[in-house]
Fold:
Amino acid sequence: MIQAPKGTKDLLPQNSGAWQAVEMSMRRCAALAGFREIRTPVFEHTELFQRGVGDSTDIVQKEMYTFVDKGKRSITLKPEGTAGVVRAVIENKLYADPLPVKVYYLNAPIFRYENPQSGRLREHHQFGMECFGAKEPSADAELITVLLGMLTELGLRNLTVHINSIGCPECRPRYHELLKAYLKANYDELCPTCKERFERNPLRVLDCKEEGCKKIAKDAPVIMNHLCDECAEHFAGLKSLLTAQGTPFKIDTHIVRGLDYYTKTVFEIIMQSEREGLALCGGGRYDSLVTQLDGPALPGVGFGIGTERIMMELLSQGIELPVESVCDVFVANLSADDRPQAFQVVSCLRDKRIKADMDHVGRSLKAQFKYAGKIGARHVVMVGGEEALRGNVKVRDMETREECETPVNDIAAFFTK
Structure:
């Protein structure tokens, strides 16, 4: 039997209602903050991610699904959402619109060739929000509070905002030299991956999950102490805005994020649990990324969060989201001769935006009632019998078991009321 590829998962009908509820919350929260939806291709030219994400990252070096198409072009299934959005902003000249440009993407498939793990598959889906053309820390604070509000609205608890600043091209090189000098003294104790990072991106050593590297990073110089005036002022502004909003946060100097394009603000929302604090999502500012991809000088800030990770946490915390019913009215036919009229009644109800269904497999009346109960129908309309001779149908309330008759020609009005 052919099975789904490793690291992929089917979304089955019995689970899709919860996904739709989460997606509705995402859309609502984004729209309230003035963000509009953008959809970018599932695949892009490989160069976009090499230049945008950074060739020193694990994503580009190890995790991308890259292939050569029939036109001999190197194509990559997108491993993250931001680079494609930036490309779309540049190519379509969205920067000519009134600034800032505020967009979100939803249910975007992301592909990473890595060992599947809890909440992270080789094909997973992300919700992200991006803001271009706003340099003030209020844009950073807006994204953090909108995201935190959405997660809280879904019912998730024990959330903590962790923030850091990783400087900019002005102040980061000096810090890199200090960090490399410190790491050099501990070079032999670094893991093989961090030894590779040492020259190309020493900041990533601070983000390593290996116990030996974590121990070394604990006493490393803190970039917060080496920010230029502009970065320090920006970070102070962010802290002030979050405090004024009443959003609790923690300064975490070991947050650096895994992508090369971040500048100034980086943040994560941590789920405090038995797993010692799970990074539920993260984001930050990327003021140089648009120019790096041949666009105009346009600051940006954004985040991405995996939908699978949200669903995992909702399940872990026992949170059941309200989902729409599959069927409001089931129309049962007493005999095969009554099916044409049952079909007409179903069509009439659907025309009035009432969820209606009927039997399509030739069940007995008793079996039709049993099926109606399984799909959660609130009412059953019975077509045929003596009621049909009077031009009526019988309606049963599946919860109270009460029954009544109503003219078949008035059935839509009956349920509309």
